[in-house]
Write a structure and sequence with these properties.
Elements (H helix, E strand, L loop, with lengths): L1 H25 L6 E3 L6 E2 L2 E2 L6 E3 H22 L16 H20 L4 H23 L4 H25 L24 E4 L2 E4 L8 H17 L7 H21 L2 H50 L2
Length: 311
């Protein structure tokens, strides 16, 4: 009885942990956070964004995720459960070597920070590195449904794409509620804003909630590759409609970012996927034609043999 209760608690904790993980993915494109402005974040008395320590909503979710994961594992150990981490497509044959490698890499970073002109900014960067490293390690060690990940990414693609389209036609930021998702206030006339010249006319490249259109393009292509790789025939109409909508509006938003590398990569992905699909269809039709031809030929041979034998 006690064992069943313990297992139920572990299962509930794992469910909460998985929900937090999907929330992290959902809020990845947003920049909802709190900026802090210590002395080291100023250059000649001017605030510099990339030197400012920022606590994002995604950071809080990642910390909660790691705490839940660590607590669940400690609880399972206390109950003498045997559990084993399994690497998905990544196998480290000698984990001790990997530990030493990570230790030397961290030591190398620490030495670089101590010799830097702005060591406090370096320590903040190292903290962010550890956050992303342990989050990546968590993802590698978990059995995660890529279909659900694609579904979560499709929501992000649709949101960012519609916001990018609105910014393009508005020729500036939308403001209002989108400010809390990390959208910056700008217009096509803002100094330093990313514009493109089309037929002699300056056109605003949409930002979404990202710091630059190229970053938006990078997010869109990564998310859309995940979505495209999980579009299957055997799924509900609602899911299929959502995934296809994400691909359509995402492609439109990607073109508007005018990020050449991202657009070329997306064209290459679409071309490769289309050729692979055509090859599969060709193989199926070719096999069917061969089967039909051999069946007809076999039937003709059988009739001839029967005619000669007087069947």
């Amino acid at each position: 009885m006690l064992l069943n209760r313990a297992q139920s608690r572990v299962s509930k904790a794992q469910t909460i942990e998985r929900i937090i993980f999907y929330l992290v993915l959902l809020f990845l494109p947003t920049q909802l956070g709190r900026h802090f402005w210590p002395e080291f974040s100023h250059v000649l008395g001017v605030r510099v964004d990339y030197l400012s320590p920022t606590l994002y909503l995604s950071d809080i979710l990642v910390v909660f995720l790691l705490l839940f994961s660590f607590g669940r594992k400690v609880y399972k150990k206390s109950l003498n459960f045997k559990f084993q981490f399994r690497f998905n497509r990544i196998q480290i044959s000698n984990f001790k070597f990997a530990q030493w490698l990570f230790l030397f890499f961290t030591l190398f970073l620490v030495i670089g920070i101590l010799r830097a002109k702005n060591p406090m900014a370096g320590w903040y960067g190292l903290l962010r590195f550890f956050e992303f490293f342990f989050f990546g390690l968590y993802v590698v060690k978990q059995k995660i449904s890529f279909a659900k990940i694609a579904l979560v990414f499709s929501f992000g693609v649709v949101f960012e794409s519609f916001l990018a389209l609105a910014q393009y036609f508005q020729k500036g930021s939308m403001g209002g509620l989108f400010y809390f998702f990390g959208e910056r206030a700008f217009t096509s006339q803002t100094p330093g804003i990313a514009n493109a010249s089309i037929n002699g006319e300056l056109m605003l490249r949409p930002y979404g909630t990202f710091p630059h259109p190229n970053v938006l393009g990078g997010y869109l292509i990564i998310a859309m590759v995940m979505v495209m790789s999980n579009v299957k025939c055997q799924m509900s109409n609602v899911k299929r409609a959502l995934l296809f909508s994400a691909l359509v509006v995402g492609t439109g938003a990607l073109i508007l970012t005018m990020s050449r590398i991202a657009i070329l990569l997306w064209l290459a992905v679409v071309l490769f996927t289309s050729l692979k699909k055509l090859q599969e269809n060709f193989k199926k039709r070719f096999n069917f034609c061969c089967f039909f031809f051999l069946s007809a030929e076999g039937k003709a041979v059988w009739h001839k043999s029967c005619g000669r034998a007087g069947c």
